[in-house]
Amino acid sequence: MKYSFLIHNFYGVGGTNRAVLNLATALLEGGHQVEVASVFRRLDRTMFDVDERITVVPLVDTRPRRPDRSNPRHREPSTLIPETEEFHLHYSRLTDERIVRYLRSTDADVVVGTRPGLNLAVARHAPEHAVRVAQEHMTQDLIDDAVKAEIRRYYPRIDLAYTVTSADAAAFRAGNPVPGTRIEVLPNSSPPPGVPPADGRSRIVVAAGRLDPIKRYDRLITAFARAAVDCPGWTLRIYGDGEQRQALAALIRELGVYDQVQLMGRRDDMSTEWVKGAIAAVSSERESFGMTIVEAMRLGLPVVSTDCPVGPREIIDDGEDGLLVPSDDLDAYTGALLTLMRDDEVRARMGKVALANSARFDPAHLAAQFARDCEEVLTVRRAEPPRRPRAGRRVPRSGLTRSVLARGGELLREPDLVRTLADPVLRGIAGNDLARRASMGALVRLARVRRVRGTSTRLQQAIRRRVSAPTDGPIVDCLVLPDFGLQWSVDAATCAGEASVVLRNRDTREVVQVALAPAVDGLRHVGTLAAAALPEGRWNVYLMDGQGVRRRVRPQRLDSRFLAGGPDDGPAGGLSGVRAHVPYRTADGFLAVRSWVRAAHAEVRRIALDGEDVTIAFTWHGPGIPDGAVLRRRGDRPESLAVSTASATDGTMTMLVPLAPLTDLRLGRYEDWDIFLRQPGGLDEVRLGRFVDDVVDKKRTYNYPEIHLAQEVELDLVEEDPAPTLRVRPYYTIDSELSIVVIDRP
Fold first, then answer.
1. I want to staple 236 with a disulfide (CB 3.0 to 4.6 A). Which of 194, 224, 463, 503 is the partner?
2. What residue intervals traverse the membrane (predicted)?
3. In terms of residue numbers, what domain contains 526?
């Protein structure tokens, strides 16, 4: 059979896109044809990697300098998508025409809508021969009442309606009954991960999702801070980006867990991040399904989750593969975290059960169920007499004038227009005499811009970087080995003749080459780079064929779990120094490696701040024992401050940096002080840093609070300020070395 999915914007990111892609790929593997009709195309290529056998059909191309972008019909409001539908302002008369034209002309056997407005379009305009399917990826309580009224009106023409949970299907049947339409449950699927599962031995709690208030990461951070009092060796990593990043960073500093809780940013592939953890955490107020729960369980992590009205309770078997706690009970959530953080045996047992239970979300299994349902509808239809075509409601073609705005088939005059605009800024513009005389099309476009700009700036930047990455470069997997060497893996079809991986130093142009050889199964070519074979530096990675042609590679899976959190016994190399190699994805989508090689090294383990001192715990990897430390002012006005070091009972060493003597030495308004360890015997000084973990951008990830000093120091050399603000903050440089900044400015 041929399946056609109608989706809002298949070129972007999002849970619906990922769920549709997983199902479409599984249907393809099952021998079916698959086509995806994306209403919008805003990028040159899709953010997710799509099987080339899936046909992607963009209906409206709004990329820069494309005719659709300036088409006057795209400035007229949609009458096909309900006004109260969340994305109504994205749609227009142009999208209406293209959607209807596509639906009436498709030869697909099954036509699938993927959000309420598009489901209604499928119900009204999909061809009579096709199975009409409506997928609901949001819960019923999030669908507007006016949209529900449209559902009751048009869904009798839908053959199959799917929700992602049983609870939501029951809510659909009870609260919005549609006679004659089968309502079924089809959970979102998660493909088998391409990396081995987690072993549960780490001390990391992992959470992932957009940084949005509904995710309640504030609750998770607070609960973890309480649990960490009894489990000081644990850390919490939160992956994602969004509007709450600054607020969450402030909460982390306020609770004093800045060295245990990290905001990691967004990742294209979470599978290699889940495996770094021992526990997955979900703290949402509500979930439509809980895709991150399935992803974590498929990699062997037990999950601690709030018991949302729908979603988690249908995935997690409480007490077997995870723990469910009431949404509003912070003490219960803290207790659930402690249960798994304290007990290695319970955590390992639940992880194994999670791995086994999550197999039911395999795309092949769910796609087979979906195909059977659609085949049943077609079988019944073939046995029935031909149905009389029912004409759908005609899409109005009313024009758009300077002072008239078409809405839902009506013409709204100037006095009524202001009342229809919900956005207060747009309402103010529309109420202005000059704006009322301007084109209503410009006002509609502004409304769309304001809605779209709700996406975080960092996410928009990530999208631009992702789509600007090369599309034809070879794909390489990279694994950090337990001995801190690197293993490269390339699809055999990519390797022509004698291929090798080449690393080229960005600064020195030095080249290191790793030969590739066929793996046992013959499907991939593999090469290993010993930890001692790569000097310090930043290295770009290339694939070179037998003819000597080099092409820069893109990473697929970067498995650096052995670096996560730093090794328990210190950096690789023991007392002889350190070698650490961290593979990472560059901003433009290429693969690179950051390497540190030091004959002697002081690795930062913990930093504690109070109002008078900065206490730094570190492990020493070099000859002898340091006989002290020194802080040196960076720049052309050198100065130094000597501090003592001491050995701690846990095998680490500590130094105490007093802030008052440090600030007494300041000569400017902004000064950086670098920290060195003094080697015994008058050897070279050694920079203090954090090299042995999987984080390349430590300056952003490890965000320490400022210490505000109350005392006012009068110095003739410093420009006086009527209200000076003296602040001190430790930070990591771009090379992951620890420094302290002193700021004397408002």
1. 224
2. none
3. 472-598
